[in-house]
Each structure stands twice: as C-alpha cells, then as structure tokens.
Amino acid sequence: MTVHLKAHGLRGPLPAALLTLTLAVGVLASAPARAADDVAALLAAADRWRAGSDAMQIETEVSVLARDGTLQKQRRYTVFMQPARKSLVLMRSPAEAGQKVLMLGDDFWLLMPGSQRALRITPSQKLLGDAATGDIATLRWAEDYGGMLQGEAACPSPDEARACRHLSLVAARKGVTYARIELWIGRARSEPVAAELFVQSDKLAKRARFLLQQGQVQEMLLQDELGGGRITRVRYLERHARTVPEAWLNPMFLARNPEIE
Length: 261
Fold this sequence. Notes:
13-stranded antiparallel beta sheet
C-alpha cells in the first residue's frame, strides 16, 4: 500500500514504519467504539428475553421467601411497559389496592388512593422484599447501562457447566436502581443467567438469577446480600403486547382519575 502525504511540504510515499503506526493508531481509536457497540448489542439481545416488544402488559407476582423457603409475603402487579422508558405499575393485592407507580424516564411517582397528589420516589425504593420499584417497572438494561465485555467465562453457580459472557456495566443515567452490575449472559443465545447488583456505595446489594422457559425469562430470584439472606422471587405470569392511552402516563391525570380500568 502506498500513501502520499502532501501536507507540510512532504511529498512521496509515506515510510512503511510511519504507515504501520498510522494504521495501528486508527485501529486502536476505533476499538472502544466497536466494544461499546458490542456491549449495546449484547444488552439488547438479553433484554429481549426479559421484555419482549416495546409495549407490553406483564402480570407479575412477587414472593418473599425465608432462608428455609417458607413463603412470608406475596403480591401481584400489572406492569404496562411502554417505549421511551415509560412504565405504569398497578398494585393488585388487597393490602396495596389502588396504589400505582409511574415511571417517566428518570422520574418515578407513587400514587396513593384518596390522594390528589403524586409523590416523588426513587427507583431503589422497595415494593416488597428485595424487589425495588425499578426491578418491577423496567426490564431493559440497554437503555440504562453501558460498560465493557470482560470476556468468556463459566457461568456463576449453579450454572458452571454453561459458557457465559461476562459484562461489567455502569449506570448511564441517574434514574436507575443500581449504580453497577456484573452480568453473565449465555454465550450462544445471550440469555441472562446471573447478575451481581451494586448500590451507589459500591456495596453488593443483591445477587440475581434468571430462570427461562419457552424462550423468555419466567422468574428472577433476588438474594439479599446486605443482611438476612432472604430470597425475593419475581415471576412473570403472563405477557402480551399492549399500548396504553397516553393520558395514563401523566401523574396529574392518574391522581384525578384513580380508576383507569
């Protein structure tokens, strides 16, 4: 290959050593962009196992289990996931009847029955057990995290026999539940297998495992790592495509119209 350089009065072919250095610099400069693209593509693939299409209604059951597996509490939620990081969560159990959580981008509101005012909350606020608001309201990593591919490794216990890819993720926006995630996905199909979830202080808050059935994540198991060791099981009982009216995604409308279904 011959490259001519006319700038600064230089003429003729570029010396081979300088040409090699120039090409190497170009390759190195493009490597971070390619790596970021690879991580984004892997996260988008993993998200499809959890969320499916952009507009979904997901019937969700959350159970809190003691160390010995004894059921302590159980609640039901209807989650309407919509494009552009918008979600509405309706609480279905008698103990929480009429309560709603609305997520719009980085903003979260809690709406209580009988109140004309929506209350600002955080995505890390607990709903039940170790399931936070953000764990229920959003099922997409690609919108919220960036990071790097650490390479291939055995999946964490009890899935060591499977081959995984290990991704180190950091929050790309403020309205997320976890500041950092260590995520393992299947090498062949990019299905989520396990995750370590870290809070702002960089403490390991939870370990997550994902159980698949019929091409989708059917359960997420959250193990508390900050004390108690209890397990919170999030089961996705039913999914189907649904786009909700735009008015449902307005906190003032929801406060004034508590009965929307």
